[in-house]
Design a protein that fits this description.
Number of helices: 9
CATH topology: Rna Polymerase Sigma Factor, Chain: A
Shape: globular
Structural class: mainly alpha
Order of helices and strands: HHHHHHHHH
Radius of gyration: 18 Å
Number of strands: 0
């Protein structure tokens, strides 16, 4: 949402289209964290995630002259990211593997909680590690919609647009993802 001090993403992209590099900087700062986490948790290595992350931003730079705000900027950005992930797995001959399950040797790492007591840090880090493990166990398409909602903050309709699907399919994948994550997390207790 745009506020007087914070223009909408679409406005920033249109400003960037007209040559305003500060608009790009604002878009990058707003979206770099969630976009990177979405790609990282969808990949089989940190190095590949970093490469794809750069590719998405490069694609945005190349597409700026033709950008039209026909959908939310975030929907457009995550469609680019989803397409780039798909291209990567197809080119690397790992598409079937990606669709069936996730790589168990992911490079994800937990970030320590800012609590002062070490036992709290340890408990929280264990929960984060368990959640990341459980995310890796989800089928790729369920993990994709879950991450688009939780990391990117997209609504169901926006996710459907980003992955070129429909709302009911997204709802179904989300329901299965949450159910499987709960079962996996309960298994750790």
């Amino acid at each position: 949402m745009a506020t007087p001090n914070k223009p909408a993403d679409e406005e920033l992209m249109l400003s960037y289209k007209e040559g305003d590099s500060r608009a790009f900087e604002q878009l990058y700062l707003r979206h770099k964290g969630p976009l990177y986490r979405y790609i990282l948790r969808s990949c089989d290595s940190k190095a590949i995630a970093e490469e794809l992350f750069q590719d998405v931003w490069t694609s945005l730079i190349r597409a700026r002259k033709s950008y039209q705000p026909s959908a939310l900027f975030t929907t457009w950005l995550y469609r680019v990211a989803s397409n780039r992930l798909t291209d990567h797995y197809r080119k690397s001959c790992k598409w079937d593997q990606y669709m069936e399950s996730a790589d168990e040797n992911s490079d994800n790492c937990a970030i320590a909680a800012p609590y002062e007591q070490p036992e709290h840090q340890s408990d929280i880090n264990q929960q984060i590690q368990r959640l990341l493990f459980c995310l890796d166990q989800l089928p790729a398409l369920q993990r994709q919609v879950f991450l688009l909602k939780e990391e990117a903050g997209l609504k169901l309709e926006e996710i459907a647009q980003a992955i070129e699907g429909n709302r009911e399919m997204v709802k179904s994948r989300m329901r299965y993802a949450i159910s499987k994550l709960r079962l996996c997390m309960e298994g750790a207790s």
